[in-house]
Design goal:
Length: about 250
Amino acid sequence: VSTQSTGGSRIKGTTHVWVMTLGETRVPTFWDAITGQRYVSGDTLPYKTIDCVFNDKSFYANTQPSNSISKIKFDLRDPVQWKAVSEDAIQSMRASKDTTNMQIVLNPNLIDPYHTAANLEHQLKRLIRDEREQHDLSTHWNENLSHLLLPAISAYETERAAGVTVSNEEFQHAVRYAVPTGFTFKGYPAQFNHLNIRQIFRGCMRSEVCSDLITSHGDELELAIKIRIYPYPENVVACWVMFACQYRCIL
């Protein structure tokens, strides 16, 4: 079995690199390096095209008429289908490489994502309470329901960052177990690249769906929110806010 890194694009059209293993049958198995998810023959792939495959010893450029995965032949030994870079060229690149000049240092993100998220949640709850008071609505929080929103947020960030859809079955089962019989559950996720809670709240209120959820009223209505922050280098953040509510259905 040979292992190669694969350069191409995802279904959404963005450039992507993932892992491919090839056995004697020349049928590829793909592995997403971020999620660890495996894709075998017959699976629906999140990838669209392949332009090259490579590892630490070889590099092959796809010279076939099409770079669409569904049309590619994966016999890397066929020089008509794959153009190989010579071993001498690869060795010369290794010998001439000056790693001291190629290092790229990214500044670490020093934010404490958990403490910051807790503070933002506290501020957001006050803003929601104030908004509901303007509509003569009381506010009751369900902390258990808030905690259950975390798996959904994790799946949303994985899809946003890696372009890979992650099953949300565990979250759906947890909600069905936690929400009492005869109650309705509603949820709304939103993602921001900053931590200004007032701007976040105004942005959410501009969504009709989110605004309706925040100002919901109903029998035994309880609200839930959860914020999770994903820090990245150079002070980049992905801030996810998920709103939810449950209330008794009146027939």
